[in-house]
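#data-curation
PF: Archiving a pair of folding outputs for the training set. Convention for this channel: one message per protein, sequence first, structure tokens after, nothing in between. First:
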Amino acid sequence: MAVIVGVARETASGERRVALTPETCKKLVAAGASVRIQPGIGDGAHFPDQAYADAGAELREDALAEADAVLCVQPPANPVLAGLKPGAVLVGSLQPQADEGRAAAIRERGLLAFPLERLPRTTRAQAMDVLSSQAGMAGYKAVLIAAQLAPRFFPMLTTAAGTIRPSKVLIVGAGVAGLQAIATAKRLGAQVEGFDVRPETREQIESLGGKFLDLGVSAAGEGGYARALTDEERAEQQRRLAEHLKNVDVIVCTAAVPGRPAPKIISAAMVAGMKPGSVIVDLAAETGGNCELTEPGQTIDRGRVIVAGPLNLASMGAQHASEMYARNVYNFVALLLKEGALAFDWDDELLAKTVWPERGK
């Protein structure tokens, strides 16, 4: 019997993305799977039910009831997890260790969870890397929010009323989101700088037309991620950064350390020293923010500076974000499908290192 893949409507507040598009639905059907979806799963991303039906999906309100594999963007509510078929496969951005009830529901139901945020960051895994694909959309949207909030033009303009100087934009963090933010700000005509404590990012920043802001502090770590700075390094970094920020118009913060709260890089004192009308958009708000004054989900006028802490920015670009996310999910699920049935090759590090609970634990 063909494996049943189920997808339900996302229930998290403000979530518009979907883990299955008509394109990936068609691919799953071609691979021998039977796809069942709740009506309306793609409404937020503008994928109509008819498009799924045309791709071979069966529309059912109880789409998850008998599903052998469940695909999602954000984790289903704990009661939904508790009602899934025992031993079912669950694929998505699950963060099981962030919620005790969620972790318990997964264990008690014997679900085979594959939290894609645990996927090894290898060349082979790039086509399945949901963190990177969604960060790209988030970085893009963050700059557009900054441009909207700023009381200035981004580009230099020569007009009959005089010359308008370009805005000075600083992107903090040069991961996927930061690099997309640099590229977007540059396209808008701003004078762009990129700051990252990993010196190897200089070439990437400069390749996008940005200037690398070198504060003389390196935090190069393993696997392409930054390590935590020592107290002395942080103090020196902050002293030099505070001086530099006095001439910056817009800051977009994107710095993150996996599995830990976002590093505090922009202090309240730094914000107080910025020019009136400056803007900070803190993409790291979901994990606490890079700015000390960030309030997740809020945009606050601090008198001289506007500080925005938007959440789930990828969902603002739901259609393209869903297309990328769904392809990531399909590429991973394809590793589990053999002739229309589920099969697990535990010698494959992508499966072995992503599965939760870890095998044998």
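PF: Second:
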Amino acid sequence: MSMLVRAPLRQVAAHRFAAPSRGVHGEYKHIPFDYSNRRTFGLKVATYLISGFSIPFVAAWFQMQKSSGSA
């Protein structure tokens, strides 16, 4: 098939299988959480990120304590 024939076929196929639009009444919020209080939101995000980042270090410390205690 030539490129001139394939281009319109792709556009027709894209429009045929497009996702239906949502029937949202009022203001649409694309973020699944509320961050109206920025200080609380920042504290929650920092706590989440710090706890997730510290898990490997706590696990390594725990394993080091186990190995040094049995000798």
